[in-house]
Design goal:
alpha+beta, 2 helices, 60s Ribosomal Protein L30, Chain: A, about 90 residues, about 30% strand
Length: about 90
């Protein structure tokens, strides 16, 4: 992983820890990810998967192998770019 990638992962992990206060999920999961970008610059949404899912490990899930279904949507919010994640344990 690049130095920049490590910084992004650390930022994601800190934000996840700040917001998620529940127990770590151990069963199979379904996940919905809504990406909100500040502009309409062309982006491949599949480039965000690996780093984001790895960032969840040890905080929300044990391992990203638990994810059985993943839905990702690309959205835009100039005033509030963010990532919203919904996870349901099966």
């Amino acid at each position: 992983m690049t130095k920049e990638g490590k910084k992004v992962k650390e930022k994601y992990q800190q934000e996840i820890k700040n917001q998620y206060k529940e127990k770590i999920l151990t069963g199979n999961c379904e996940m919905v990810v809504d990406l909100f970008f500040k502009d309409k610059k062309r982006r491949d949404i599949d480039n965000f998967n690996k780093l984001l899912l790895d960032s969840l490990e040890g905080i929300i899930i044990v391992d990203d192998k638990q994810i059985q279904k993943l839905t990702i949507t690309k959205n835009y919010s100039r005033k509030n770019p963010r990532i919203e994640i919904k996870i349901n344990e099966n």
